[in-house]
Design goal:
Its EC number is 2.7.11.1. The chain is α+β, with helices and mostly antiparallel strands and 321 residues long. 42% of the residues lie in helices and 15% in strands.
Length: 321
């Protein structure tokens, strides 16, 4: 048994050295913003991308959790670079979009981008690791009832609004995300939100027309995209409105959005705000009441809903907030 253990340990050390040797050139080409680690460090931290380190899968590949020897934890997205020609082109475009969009972006509510590289038929994107994962899993899981109170939900909505405002107004060129949804909002241990997944993002330069192929997720895309095929910041704002309503309602507002015309003509003032809020929580109180009401009125207004739709008591919130 002792001999077997020694042989196995030696074999593992040789494999580790071999991995480092194979990726020697890759490590040199690996771009890392702060220069704290190499691609070889990531390979070793994930046991050469063993499936046990995979924490999520998406349209273009798998995301791995890597705890580096320096104690830092990162998330690594691995994208297949060699498949059929169509898949290869789509994946490369997503890879390039994400790099182009995130290389110069720095905002507390946008996921931090550490670096990227190409190796062995795969493309790698490295980000900060967010402990809570996607907001969708939190909202629809047990934490949605236990920890995600009204104050937390308002905090998340405010953070994503600030992230989009930064992309739309403070970046040069301007960036439209094109796929704002709960799955692309990540949370750290303090429930601070980060907007992520810029694989379909589009940079709007001075000469850009906004004309584009269809992108986004059904249920979050602005309806005008179906016939205009022109993407602007307003399309992100529509998606953000859907997300904000979903956070407050605890479910996707699809039925509400599709029934707005009939609601406005037949029910008018009969729909109460308390009936729309997430029923797992007790209704908000104090200052939070005004914030929640304001969020609903502003978002439903953007979705072309009449202000009379929501009935409440008390003084109207300041519309300049």
């Amino acid at each position: 048994m002792v001999v077997a253990i020694l042989v196995f340990s030696r074999k593992k050390r040789e494999e580790k050295i071999e991995i480092n040797s194979e990726n020697k050139d890759v490590a040199k080409s690996f771009w890392e913003r702060d220069g704290k680690f190499s691609f070889s460090d990531i390979v070793n931290a994930t046991d050469n991308f063993n499936v046990v380190f995979c924490i999520g899968t998406g349209r273009f590949g798998c995301v791995y959790r890597a705890e580096l020897s320096i104690g830092q934890v990162i998330a690594v997205k691995r994208i297949q670079a060699q498949d059929t020609e169509d898949v290869e082109d789509i994946n490369k475009k997503s890879f390039e979009n994400e790099i182009r969009a995130l290389t110069e972006v720095r905002h507390r509510n946008i996921v931090k981008f550490h670096g990227f590289c190409l190796s062995g038929g795969y493309m790698y994107l490295v980000y900060e690791y967010l402990e809570k994962g996607s907001f969708s899993n939190v909202l629809y899981g047990s934490e949605g009832e236990r920890e995600l109170n009204w104050a937390m939900r308002v905090k998340v909505i405010r953070g994503i609004a600030q992230a989009l405002a930064y992309l739309h107004h403070d970046c040069t060129p301007r960036i439209v995300h094109r796929d704002v949804k709960l799955n692309n909002i990540l949370l750290n241990s303090e429930f601070e939100p980060r907007l992520s997944d810029f694989g379909t993002a589009k940079l709007l330069g001075l000469g850009s027309t906004g004309w584009t192929s269809m992108a986004g997720t059904y249920g979050y895309m602005a309806p005008e995209l179906a016939y205009t095929m022109q993407f602007t910041e307003k399309c992100d704002v529509y998606s953000f409105g859907v997300v904000a309503l979903e956070i407050m309602m605890g479910k996707h507002p699809g039925d509400l959005l599709s029934s707005l015309p009939s609601i406005s003509s037949s029910l008018e003032n009969d729909l109460l705000l308390k009936d729309l809020l997430d029923q797992r929580l007790t209704p908000p109180a104090g200052q939070l009441v005004e914030e929640v009401v304001f969020l609903f009125e502003s978002k439903l207004s953007h979705q072309q809903s009449p202000p009379k739709l929501l009935k409440r008591k008390g003084k109207a919130p300041n519309q300049e907030k």
